[in-house]
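I am still learning, so can you show me any protein sequence you like together with the matching structure tokens, please?
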Amino acid sequence: MRILLAALAALTLGACALSPQTINVTPVLTVANEHFGRNQTVSVMVTDNRKDAVIGSRGGIYNQSSVIQSANDVAAAVRSEAERGLAAQGYTVTGTEANNLVRMSIEEMSYTVPEGAVATSADIVVALKVVAQRGDTQYETTYRSTVNRRFPVAPTATQNEAWINEVLGETLQRFFNDAKMRAFLAAP
């Protein structure tokens, strides 16, 4: 009986103290090879406007130290995938002067768990503000995704990485699926 109680106590305490996690942010898009861009040039700029590089906390009794952070440059990862998607849509992506300029800013990328010693769910939120510019004309919008993940045991870094990348990819996908944005960028 004492062994069973000791094992339960160890499991309970172990669930309360969570280690920090470092993940690779790599959003993935599904963009059909549609050439409505008609080889127009486009330049992409991405900035990370989050107040903190930490994505969130895993919770637990050491909430301040059980953080999730990125091992790579989040803005560079988003830019790379956005450029790949635009090229698949028939645009010529360039780092210099272009007919179209797409400025993306990462306004939010968060991972939030409920207060308490043991987390059983997390809200993952991503918000991307996009300003597309062609000459003096602009089209501006914000794409936001919120997903709640429930779990019986604390997720591994691999699980959290997959979930965060999934939500970031879904948010970026909204940019590529936005009919008004497509029409704005593709206009001659």
The chain is about 30% helix and 35% strand. Strands lie at 21-23, 41-48, 54-57, 67-70, 92-93, 100-112, 121-134, 137-150. The domain at 2-186 is CATH 3.30.160.150 (Double Stranded RNA Binding Domain).
